UniProtKB/TrEMBL annotation:
PROSITE patterns: PROKAR_LIPOPROTEIN. It is found in: Periplasm. Keywords: Alginate biosynthesis, Periplasm, Signal. It comes from the Bacteria. GO terms for biological process: alginic acid biosynthetic process. InterPro entries: AlgF (IPR035422). Residues 1-26 form the signal peptide. Pathway: Glycan biosynthesis; alginate biosynthesis. GO terms for cellular component: periplasmic space. This is Alginate biosynthesis protein AlgF. Its main location: periplasm. Belongs to the AlgF family.
Length: 235
């Protein structure tokens, strides 16, 4: 009887160990599914906004696949390994702007948003450089980018609602956290307001960007959820 009791105890201990091990693996899997595969710590990030009125085919350096962008559309953030040039190709041509040469590499942690415009002379690029930061897990994160020349943009809730961003200078960006909310935003250049932009339902931990484009006489407000092109698609 004692032998049976001893073996039963060993079996119980063994089963408990297996259960604990399985629970640990399950917890690890939960964490992995929550955060997903993460880019390298020294990566930088690049995305493109089509601020023109026509579709455009673009190829970005990094992890995002080449694609056709409709007017107002935005790519995901392409992940660039350290030393990779912040390069955008449109119609087979590498675009440059006054802010950086074509072979310039971003600093680790930089997040570069490039807006494309088109006129009689072809395609032009304007970039705004910020830092890539994790979203607040308890609130929603709202980022504002002002690509409208000559406009100190105010962004607020439609219908004379509260101000969300009091002043975003042309060529600059700003970031703030907000409580998850449904609202319509407008961008203003002086007394001239854009059409209203309905925000999607944002939950805690979500990150969303709004873009002021056009110009001071006719501002346009658009937006997108912030998303990473990671892990890279298999070839």
């Amino acid at each position: 009887m004692k032998t049976i009791s001893l073996n039963s105890s060993k079996l119980a201990v063994g089963m408990a160990a297996l259960v604990a091990c399985a629970a640990a693996h399950a917890a690890a899997d939960d964490v992995a599914s929550l955060y997903g595969p993460q880019p390298p710590a020294d990566a930088s990030y690049l995305r493109v906004l089509n601020a023109s009125s026509q579709a455009v085919w673009v190829a970005l350096a990094g992890s995002e696949a080449p694609q056709t962008l409709a007017p107002g559309a935005v790519t995901r953030f392409s992940v660039l390994t350290q030393g990779t040039a912040v390069r955008v190709i449109v119609g087979g041509k590498v675009l440059t702007d006054a802010a950086a040469p074509a072979d310039a590499a971003a600093r680790p942690g930089d997040a570069v948003t490039v807006a494309l415009r088109h006129d009689a002379k072809g395609w032009h690029a304007t970039r705004i450089v910020g830092r890539y930061e994790r979203a607040d897990g308890l609130k929603a994160t709202l980022r504002a980018f002002n690509f409208a020349p000559g406009c100190g943009a105010r962004i607020g809730v439609d219908g004379n609602g509260p101000t969300v961003f009091a002043q975003v200078a042309a060529g600059a960006q700003d970031t703030r956290t907000i409580n998850p909310v449904s609202a319509k935003l407008v961008g203003q250049c002086g007394a001239v307001a854009s059409a209203a932009l309905p925000l999607p339902a944002l939950a805690a931990g979500d990150s969303y960007s709004v873009f002021v484009t056009g110009d001071a006489a006719k501002p346009v407000l658009s937006g997108t959820r912030d998303a990473l092109a990671w892990p890279p698609a298999a070839n």
